[in-house]
Structure formats: C-alpha cells, structure tokens
C-alpha cells in the first residue's frame, strides 16, 4: 500500500504541476479525449524502477504500454478531480507539494548513493572484518541429513503401503527411485532428499527417529506424524562449527554497502536537522485543535 500511495502522489504531482503543453515536443504514447501521456511521462514514472532494471523494462513494448496505460488513467482521474475542485483544498495542495518534495529528495538520495558507492574491495574488506569480529553470529549447530518417503494419512491403507515400501527397500530397492514413485510430498522428485537440518527443526516423532540413527544409509521403521507415515533414510551428520566466510560473504557485503550509504544519507539529514527550529506554541495549538 505504501508503494501504491507513493505512485499515486507522484502521478498526481506531475498532473497538477506540469502543463500539458510542456509535452508537445514528446511523442504521445497513449491518450483519451484531451488527456495524453508522452515518452517524457513514462521516463519520469520509470524513475521509481531500480536503475539496473529500468532500461530493460523500457525496452519491452508491453511494459511501456502498461506504464502508459496506468499513467493515462491516473491523469484522466486527476483531471476529473481538478474539475470537481478537489485540488483547491489547501490540504490537497500541500499533499501535492509534499509528493513533489518526496520525489526530488528520493532522487537526490539516489544520486548520493551512486556517488558514495564503495568499491567491491572496500566492501569485501569490511565484510571480512565483521565476520571475524562476530563469530557467534555464524555458529552452526550439529545437523543431520535425511531423505524420506511419505504416505499421507488420508491414503487408503496408508500404514500398510508404507510397510510394503519399507519391505522393498530392505530387499535392496533404490530409495530415490521409490521416493519418486511413491512419496506424496514436494521432495519426491528429488528422491525424497530433505537436506540437512538441526535438532528440533522437524516435527517431534520424525526428529526423534533421526536422532537415533547413526549410519549413513540406515533406514528407520515406519514413523507416524501428523503428516502421515514416513520411511526415513539417514544421510549423515555434520558437526557443529562456524559457517565459512564464502557462504555468508554476499550477505555481509550487502550489509556493509547499505551501512556506508545510509551513514552518508544520515550525515545529509543531520546537517539539515541541526538547523531546524520548532515553534512549540504553534505545535501545541495545532495538536489541541485536533484533539477536539
């Protein structure tokens, strides 16, 4: 809803603050009656799209058509609002100015971000420092790996079917093959592989069964949970340790980059905040008038 509201404000600001004649040199992409949307309008609306996705989006005719459609509808509605006198409301006029302020300040921040973007080498160095400085954040508990075949409880003779599948496995059938054939869950096509997980991440009966297993390839008895009847194949254990830097590097680099850019933004904000003077009496009177 916040994004929708922002787009509404932006469109309304453009509609009410820019004369239609200003677009006369631009190609008209969509129109209805006397209302039109030009290439400049679409380019302006596209400023809300992330920079890396903006040009690819505008290179697709269907995407441009959708943007133009949204804008021409919004512009037509805004024209009706103007005709109805809605724009004459002082609060509405303030909202339009505030929307304009928001667009311009957001674009200024985007320009600052581009200018302050640190190099990959700097960000990676900070990420490594943060990794070494907070090792507990990257602790890994002991994990168990398992695959399973699930027969859901509402399947006719579900337990008997699970017992029959277990008998096939004990006779030498391939677990992954039978999982693909019989298992009734989303992991079936992956041979029933559930990957690795820590104690307590699975439902209690399943977790208890896996905890007792020791040898990779070991099969459980049929285990009943609220999901149905499981046959579990133990895949092995991973000892507790620390997640390698290479596994968390991208996340840490993004965190470092965001912090650097946010700090620069805050410097700009604080510079202005330090000059702000409030009128306590006016604030008190305004609050009082709205409390009645």
Summarize the structure.
The protein has 292 residues and is α+β, with helices and mostly antiparallel strands.
Order of helices and strands: HEEHHHHHEEHHEHEEEHH
The fraction of residues assigned to DSSP E strands is 5-15%
What is the number of domains?
A: 3
- Compute the number of helices: 11
Mass-distribution shape = elongated
Account of the 3D structure:
There is one protein chain. This protein is of the alpha+beta class. It folds into 3 domains: 2-106, no CATH class; 117-137 and 244-292, no CATH class; 142-239, Chitinase A, domain 3. It has helices at 2-17, 39-45, 51-58, 61-83, 90-116, 120-133, 158-170, 175-182, 204-212, 245-273, 280-289, and strands at residues 28-32, 35-38, 139-140, 143-152, 193-198, 223-225, 228-238, 241-242. The strands form 3 sheets. A 4-stranded antiparallel β-sheet has the order 5-4-7-6, sandwiched between helices. Helix 1 crosses helix 4. The chain is elongated and about 80 Å long. Mean pLDDT is 91; it is low at 1-24.
Essential attributes:
two-stranded antiparallel ribbon; 11 helices; elongated; Chitinase A, domain 3; 292 residues
How are the SSEs ordered, and which strands pair?
Layout: H1 2-17, E1 28-32, E2 35-38, H2 39-45, H3 51-58, H4 61-83, H5 90-116, H6 120-133, E3 139-140, E4 143-152, H7 158-170, H8 175-182, E5 193-198, H9 204-212, E6 223-225, E7 228-238, E8 241-242, H10 245-273, H11 280-289
Antiparallel strand pairs: 1-2, 3-8, 4-5, 4-7, 6-7
Helix pairs in contact: 1-4, 1-5, 5-10, 6-10
